Amino acid sequence: TGWLVLALIAGGCVWYLDRPPLSTVGAVAFDRELAIPPLAPSRVENGFRVFDLRADSGVTDFGHGETRTAGYNGSYLGPTLRVRSGEKIRVRVRNDLDQDSTVHWHGAILPAAVDGGPHRPIRPGRTADMRWTVDQPAATLWYHPHPDGHTEEQVLRGLAGMFLIDDDDPRTAALPHEYGVDDLPVIVQDRRFGWDGQFGTRPDFSSDVGVLGDTLLVNGTIGPYREVRTSLVRLRLLNGSNGRQYDFGFAGDRGFHVISTDGGMLAAPVPRTGIRLAPGERADIVVPMRPGERLVLRSRSPAPDENILVRRFEGGMDSFDVLELRAAATLTPSTPLPAVLSDLPPPDTSKVAHERSFEFYQRTINDKNMDMHRVDLIATAGTREIWTVHSTHLMPHVFHLHGQRFRVLDVDGEPPPPELSGWKDTLNLPMDVRFRLLVTFAGNADENTPYMYHCHVLRHEDEGMMGQFLVVGPGREKFAATRHHPGG
Ligand code: C2O
Ligand code: CU
């Protein structure tokens, strides 16, 4: 048996090392115009701005024949919801899929009852009616299903969309904001097409982050270009992929400014030549255009000395062409970027109600796997807490917190880089890097419906890398604890 074991090990190594790299360098032809998801129509009814979404399956031609997909109000992705800060909104979501679904408003500050978590599935044929007041400043959010155990599958089929918040701050009004013209949604997703033109859904064993694709879809378009005619163009980058990370940058190292991250505007535009986004993270960037040029947005490969094993475990960092911007021969001058974008106060760590820490390892957070009947912690509405989040696992994990925002206090004891200094709800956790976060609990209290925190690698989320928390009113913590046994 000794020889047999050796032979099996040797065979396993050959099989493992012989597997093709996770993706090829994705040079594309840029021969299709970038699709821009339509703005969702709305109407005002009894003081609410009302939107209708319908989740359904369909068929989409990406250039690989007829691919079976799903979308909201269409066959792939969904319309962009655009709302104003302070507005009361109501979204009716009809589920015409053949399985339970939900819609989670990723990044939204809202009551747990309308957060779209797995506790309130929308059964096939049923409609959910979700109402809340938009109580946060201008930001680029998104929405996607969050049903128990089927999030990866439903997002992979195409269920996702953007949710944009505008506000009345004159500084944000000066930014490029004409949707589809100088303000472009850029939803980046990787997919693998099978021989039959269908999406590959087999997890890539060697990556362990679920399905990794070798083809990029941007707003559902493969190899997209977009004509632009302003001197500044804003791209709302959303990593809408299941497990892949991207280091976005332009060919020729064109500089750009990062103006906002997940939860809102940065204090000032941050000059950069690259930005990394983990699944679920967003960044708005503004890039200067030169008349007549073609400027290519890429996701760059890892450092050349990284070996194949590191590449396999790094969430598949490889080179992709993402999008070509084609500038008109003459460009309309844009308003220059304001020097100050928002009053981003330094994080206030006085009066912190609790300090907690969260270890991410394999499919657990603090050694626990998700249990819908277990509440992991109880927080008080309107308070602040310091959370330390830390991954001790070689696989990249991504921390996401529902219904609240946070600021990064420090990264391994050092101040965060400027692009991590603003409001966040999603954060990449490279192995052995310790992040201290100042979590701000919003005023929405509910003793019965929990929110979630979890890994945003959707395969990991489906496999239970998730915990639950209640946000209760001041003075209600003990009572809620006797009912829910947090930590039990
Ligand atoms: Cu974008 Cu709980 O997810
Ligand atoms: Cu994970």
UniProtKB/TrEMBL annotation:
Presence of the UniProt keyword Cell cycle in the record: yes
- Which part of the chain is the Plastocyanin-like domain? 65-168, 355-471
In terms of InterPro entries, this protein maps to: Cu-oxidase-like_N, Cu-oxidase_C, Cu-oxidase_fam, Cu_oxidase_Cu_BS, Cupredoxin
Cell division as a keyword of this entry, yes or no, is: yes
Alphabetized Gene3D superfamilies for the sequence = Cupredoxins - blue copper proteins
Name the UniProt key words of this record, in alphabetical order. Answer: Capsid protein, Cell cycle, Cell division, Metal-binding, Oxidoreductase, Virion
Annotated GO MF terms:
copper ion binding; oxidoreductase activity
Q: Name one Pfam family in it.
A: Cu-oxidase_3
The record, for PROSITE patterns, names: MULTICOPPER_OXIDASE2, PROKAR_LIPOPROTEIN
Signal peptide position in this chain?
Answer: none
Q: Which GO terms describe its biological process?
A: cell division
Family stated for the protein in its record: Belongs to the multicopper oxidase family.
Q: What is this protein called?
A: Multicopper oxidase with three cupredoxin domains (Includes cell division protein FtsP and spore coat protein CotA)
Organism, by scientific name, is: Actinoplanes derwentensis
